[in-house]
Amino acid sequence: MDLERDEFVVNYDASQATESDLIATIKREGFTARVEATAYAVEVPAFFREALAKARSESKPIVLDFNASWCVPCQRMLRETFPNEKVARLLERFVLIKVDTDQHPALANKYGAVGLPDVRLLSPTGDELRRFRDFQGPDAFAQALDELLAEVAADATGNDLIGLSGDERELKEAFNGDRGNVRLLLVLSPT
Amino acid sequence: MQNEILEAVTDEKLKVYVVWTPVLQEDDRQAAVKAITHVPDERAIHFWDADKSLGFSLGKTITLPRERELAWDVYVAFDATAEWVDGIPNPAYWMHQLGTDERKLSGEALRVSLEKLLGTSE
Question: What residue numbers bound the domain in which B29 lies?
Answer without folding.
Answer: 2-120
